[in-house]
Every structure is written in C-alpha cells, then in structure tokens.
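User: Please predict structures.

Assistant: First:
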Amino acid sequence: MQILASLREVFTNASAWRPGYAALARLLAQGGGHPPALAAKALQTDPGQTGCAYADGELLPLLGKQGRFIDQEAFDPERAEGHDA
C-alpha cells in the first residue's frame, strides 16, 4: 500500500488492481498471511490513505482488522476470478 501511495503522487489515476487484490483479500480474510514480524515487515507502516478509494475503503481496513500481511506472491492467476481455463 505504501508503493501505491507513492505511485499516486506521480500517477494520480493509479489504483490497486482489483482482481489481484480481491483474491489476496479473500485469502487474508480466510486466515491466510502472516504476522508482520515473520517476514521482516514490522517496520512497514500503514500509509493511512493512498488516495485510491478501493485500497482506502476496503484493503487497508482489512489489513488493520486482521493485523496480518499477505504477500503478492500468494496471488495465483489460475485461481483469479474471470480466468479462462
């Protein structure tokens, strides 16, 4: 989310990629992910607001509620919604 906030400083229309982040959010809501300390993410801070309505209204609150991280590498394009098999 920090990267998204930084990108939006230059590319004001940048937004979180909904198909990918929705899949990751589902995994996180189901108990996936890990505590920040397990992946050297303890120093990453909540950007507060990214300026992206989806990230600010859904993703950041979920991360805060869960108190966990889920890595982008957990995204499996074969299992994403809308994937043609």
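Second:
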Amino acid sequence: MAPEVTNDPHCRSWVPTANRSGVDFPIQNLPIAEFRRRDSCESFRGGIAIGDQILDLAALAAAGAFSGEAALALHAAARPTLNELMQLGAGSWNALRHALFEGLLEGSALQPMLKPCLVPQSAAEYSLPAQIGDFTDFYSSVHHATAVGRLFRPDNPLTPNYRWMPIGYHGRSSSIGISGQAFHRPRGQRLPPGESRPLFAPSVRLDYELELGVFLGNGNSIGFPIPIDGAESHVFGLCLLNDWSARDLQAWEYQPLGPFLSKNFATTISPWIVSLQALAPYRAPQIRAADDPKPPGYLVSAANQAAGGFDIRLEAYLETAAMHAHHEPPQRLSSTSFRHSYWTVAQLVAHHTVNGCNLRAGDLLGTGTQSGPGPDEAGSLLELSSGGKHSVRVGSSEQRSFLEDGDTVIFRAWCAKPGAARVGFGEVRGRVLPAAADPGAAAG
C-alpha cells in the first residue's frame, strides 16, 4: 500500500509557523475544533489548527473553496457544532482532510483564497466541539487498575473480569466542559476512617485522571453491533480528557452500582480533535502478556493486535495558586504513553455495542486513567501518593496528596519519532475552586 500523502514528513506548509521544529500542529496533523474570536459575539464554527493559526472553515466555505464531497464536509464543519460532520462518515472526513492538506501545502494555488481565512490561536476562544449526547468512561489501563486495586485488595488487585472485557460506566455529559473549565470542589457523603456514620462535606481527596477522549462519528442502529474490524471507521478522533474524581465520595458510594456523585460534577476536554489518520504513523501493537486469556471473538482481530494501539505521549502537570503567584512554571507530575493501554480504541467501541447499544455522532468515550508500568507513569494522584499515604513535592515548598483549592491541572500529549512528523494535541487545563455554599446549612 502506498504511503498516505497527508502523513509525509517532508511536506511543508505556506503557513511559516507550521514548519517549526516541535510544533504541535504541522500540516500532517490538521486537528479540528469549534472556535470564535475571543470576547466577540461571533458564532462558534469549525476551525483547523495549522502552526499557531486557525483556518476558519466558515470563512472558507463562504469563499466557495473545494468541490464535491470535500465541499459538503466543509459546509458541515462550518456549523456551531461538529455533529453533522461527524455523522457524514469516514469518506467525507478523509475528503476534507485531503482538500485542506492540498490547500495548505507549500506552493498551493489555493493560498490566496485560504490566507484571509486565518485567525491567530492567541485571539481565539473555544467551545465544546459537539453536542455530546452520551458519555461513557472506561478502565482500559491495566497498570492503573492494578495499582488502584492493590490499595484495596493487595492479594488480588484485578477483578476477575478485567482481562476478559473492557470495563466501563455511563457518565454525565451535561458537566463536560472545554479546557479552562473552573469548577467548585464537590460536596457529598464520605465516611471518615473509623466512623460508622457518613459525613456530608466537601471532598478532601479530590483527584485528576489522565485520559484520552474518543469522539464517535457515524453511529450504529440499535440492535446492530459494530464489528471490531470496522470499529475505527466510526471514530471521528481523539482529544485529551480529565475525569475529575472525588476519591472519598467514590469509596463510600461505589458499591454496588459504581461511580455517581464522585465523578459527575466535572469532566474537562481539550478543544482540538486529532484524527486517526493523523496518528497513523504512531500505531503500535496491542500489548498483552503471553499467558493472558484470549477474550471472546468479538474483541479479537489480527489487525487490532498488530496495530490497534497508539504511541501517544501523555503528561500531567500541576500549578498551585502559590506557584502561579510567584510565576513558577507548572510542575510535571508524570509521563506515560497510551501504548500501554490494555484495551484498544477499537475494542472499546466493539464492546460498547455488542449488546445492541446504539452509538450516535458526538458521543464521547473516555479511555480511563492512563498509567504505565513505572512509578513515574501514574495517571492520578491516588497512585502517586499511594492512596494519600505520602505527599508529592510540588514547586519550591509545597506538598500534595490530593488537589487543593486554587490548583490548576494541565495535560499535554503528542507523538514524535524519527521519520515522522510530530503530531500534538495541545493541552487541557482545569482549575479547582472552593466548595460552594452548603445547601443544607439554612435548613440546619
């Protein structure tokens, strides 16, 4: 098979900043987001990241760029949400990607038409890229599952079903926010050590979870599962995701039905969605131990085993209020790779639909916390602090076991290797505010 031209690392753009070393958004990436000029009354519309600029797809559509399937996809991408574009399917997404690539390529005859459609990223603000109907969060990192399980079940950290199927739960889409989200520390019931009566109070064990988000494109009809070999054709792309978690609320509420108030108060995603085509040079084999059981056939595929993983570098940073005040840079807490995930993106989609569940354009899947095998690859403070037993040094003089008010958590992700163009995700950041007023105080 001939190499995909849009992944050719030798190609350059007429946008100068897209050709700089280490840039997240070269011409080989072309991620999409919903944006508008900051502090304006403009409608949000689709935009493509190229270097430090955004190609305004609404302006491009109004200029009459492209034709055929690419033009139809462009007009769908110019709307205030990307749901219509997502619903069109992989053929339309690829047609638009190729047309944009050719238009942004160095020497393109379309440069005079595209250049007036550029907006500096520094002048933009973002919204959620789609109307998210449903959100499902998985538990796909065996290293995270083992580390957390060991805190509560030292002799048998993994549940018996873990190696047989992807484990997940249905989350709440209404509290998903875009990067920059600030939220109040959640209140809820928690059971203090040694007590028999729960306490209603703000969480004191607030945590982050380093995840990727998977946006679904065209879905499936109810009752008709998506086969694993066709699962990726339903994936519109990936973003960064922080599934904030109140560990003390979670410990009290999760039996017998799982997370509820400990998870649904806030989830933050990055604005840019990176396509699987852009990530193609960074595919990796699925990692499984030789003695692990072979899951049921609907989760098995030779193509998935050979190249269903992605070597996406993931990093978590923390900036405390004191660090911000003293102009200290955010501190990196951990670094890992999505290639360590036990379950692949295709397996998450196939398992989600195997019972006949229908997915729809704009639905979002979380991969679950991504942790690697090393102690510095943990994707949560729960792991880094061994369940709060010791603190992590932060900045010049602070310690953290869990998040405090004023803390900002930042995730970054990218792919890089010799012989391929760097592909970045940008970043996602969110900030913890003090708990809001106690709703029961007046009654008490």
